[in-house]
Amino acid sequence: MTWFLSHLDDVGVFLAWHVYLSAVPLVLGLAIALPLGYLARRYRWLYPPLILGTGLLYTIPSLAIFILLPLLLGTQILDPINVLVAMTVYTIALLVRTVADGLAAVPDEVLLSATAMGYKRFSRLLRVELPLAVPVIAAGLRVAAVSNVSIVSVAAIIGVSQLGSLFTDGFARAFLAPIVVGIVACVLLALALDLLILAAGRALTPWLRNRRAS
Amino acid sequence: MISRIFGWLFDPANTGAIVSRTLEHLQYSVVALALAALIAIPAGMYVGHTGRGRFAVVNLAGAARAIPTLGLLYLMVLLLGPRLTGDVAFLLPNLLVLVVLAIPPILSGTYAGIDEVDPAARDAAKGMGLTGREVLLRVEFPCALPLVFSGLRSALLQVVATATIAATAGLGGLGRFLIDGLAVRDFPQMAAGAILVAVLALLCDLVFGLAQRYAVSPGISGRTRRRTRRARRERDADSGASASRTERDRLDAGASAS
Amino acid sequence: MIEFDSVTKEYPDGTVAVGDLSLRAPTGEITVLVGPSGCGKTTSLRMINRMIEPTSGTITIDGEDSGSVDPARLRRGIGYVIQHAGLFPHRTIVQNIMTVPTLLGWDGGKAKARAMELMERVGLDPAFADRYPNQLSGGQQQRVGVARALAADPPVMLMDEPFSAVDPVVREGLQDEFLRLQSEMGKTIVFVTHDIDEAVKLGDRIAVLDVGGRLAQIASPAVLLAEPASDMVADFVGRDRGYRALAFTGGQVRADDEPTVPLGASVEDARAAAGGARWLLVLDEEGRPAGWVEPAKMAAPASADFLNRGGTVARADGSLRQALDAALSSPSGRGVLVSPDGALIGTVPAGRVVEAIEAERVHRTEGGAS
User: Fold this and answer.
1) Which of C13, C82, C161 faces B229 most closely, judged by CB atoms?
2) CB atoms inside a 10 Å sphere around CB B12
3) What CATH number does residue C330 fall under?
4) Are strands C280-283 and C78-82 parallel, antiparallel or unpaired?
5) Given CB atoms, is B154 within the 8 Å cutoff of chain A?
6) In terms of CATH architecture, what is B22-241?
7) pLDDT digits over C222-253, tens only?
8) Could you tell me if residue C255 is inside a domain?
9) Amino acid A91: pLDDT
10) Residues C285 and C207 in one domain
11) Residue-range definition of the domain harbouring residue C198
């Protein structure tokens, strides 16, 4: 506790970086996964390669991606961009399937009646399909948010500062306090992002709240 | 740079190290996965069959995901290491963390798989006079296999990835190339190690995918001979909307497949 | 009028879903498409609003080739009701009903007023307006589905088994109300069902389709039941088609006066009124038949609690099917006939109804011969 209080500033800076490195990829990943997921749903032949391809990306261990990305991007290994890109890739890998499955979960009769009432394809997607896919997409986003927070900390090994730096510092000096503080901060951050997405998802789906109101 | 990486990879001087590090990595992963499965599959079957403790199981998977693996590794090594001697001082805490991390996905996959078994199939089994144990082993578990496998697969990926970073806490395996390379700024060695780890992870997943194909009944995986297009179309057009899986099912599957 | 002219739907693998179909659905009438699974009835329906495009042939709506109209615009002018209603779960009831008016760019206030008016017309409590579909029963959801299809007052309605997913009692109520609505609105309706009873009850004309989408027969319900054009049609309309056909046969049957007592009559009064007969009819406060009692077994004044209500009641101006059913189902063997407002007219035994049926048949066939 005393260590935490005397290093409040450091932890604050680490936390800010951690938020940046785990939250920005969520937004970018969602923005990219939405059209990809839609394509996977719309054109059935695209579903297997897209899901398989993004699934393969997800299997690559994070440390390996952090090390290999500079090679592909031409960046320096210490550049936080690498982490940002890697986390975005992971987010996309998780969300493409979620978006496709979320859209697939919209009941056939709802799609049918929307078309029959004269919705054009894009407005049907925007007004009917996406709102109904929100619960599934939000659930996927929560998983992505929580695992992003954990994976970002691994980047401390290659020297990108964030809460994970507390682990490497503490381990190097065989000192428990920073490690415990880091773990607690990571878990709290994950929890905060999780609740934030949960709340946003609830706010976007008022019809699910009233199920028992009658 | 690429040529230097491949130069390193195919340098005969490194072949022996590559082979032995790969085997080490596999050994850690398989041992950890097996121990975790030994604990998590029976536990998941119990929870799924009886419904006892389902709240804990559902939340455990989410909570476990939030714990930063790197922090957990260092914490365990620092806490347990001084109490042990020799190689075991590094090996045991690391292995323990691998097992602990592999349990939640397998547990929640098994539970969700059994929980989602069609109640009609369960009732029919009971109605035919199968005992609770027989229902679990002959009906529920086989039906749950796809999700058990997806739990095992995500646990294995987790273990392979975590074993890599455990190299920084003194574990062997392919992670050593990354960490040792980092220490001496030998980038070709790091990159080669990263490629090896990625390939190993992909291969492990592939092997499990194939195992799943053989273990899961075609009646469940849907890999039966295709219905004729005509039959499908008639079903689609003339018997109304086909029932799609509920959103909740998708949520569970989505969450446990990660 | 909707007109199919040699419409064929063939899929790339050679399957013919609809084969050279020509038929007309007259303006202001209900045309029912009926047939076994795989007969292409739903495919035919969906070709009208171009949810499925025909391979060849044309479909015209009031003289306009539907293939020449932008599909979205075409669909906004055609009401569409399906089996599970297909309500948008994320929108309130009133928002669901306002869908097409909103797409058509109506002013919000006008669209809402129209939606509220329609809720009332289809028999929905306006208190439901701000609820979500999952808070309504299946029957209520289906009413919303009908209201939603009517929202922009389209001249044409397509209905695809709209009442098959609700339980039989609710279904009957929905059918009756649907007929009442149609009598007020006179829409041109194409209605798909697999249920021949529903077809007979609702259809002005019934088109029976055979597997492969070939038209087997198109006729009024009475003709379809009396003169099926082929074995397939005869098989499909079923064994008791002779009895069903009676639903379209009106005819006069003479009613006998029936002794009655009011509810609350004493045992003595009941025995006196029955005059030795085993069963006695009891009327309620408004003179409507309430049920039958056995005066010999009465121990207390006639009360609603122990009346035999086994018999159905037929309208004296209704079909002979109802009259026969009333007689067959009555514990006394005497069928109860009532006026349109439900007041007792008299009773009739089954034998006399059968005589009337016979007389009607002779009259019809001789009339047909002359």
Assistant:
1) C13
2) 6
3) 3.10.580.10
4) unpaired
5) no
6) Orthogonal Bundle (1.10)
7) 888 888 899 889 888 877 777 777 777 777 78
8) no
9) 94
10) no
11) 2-248
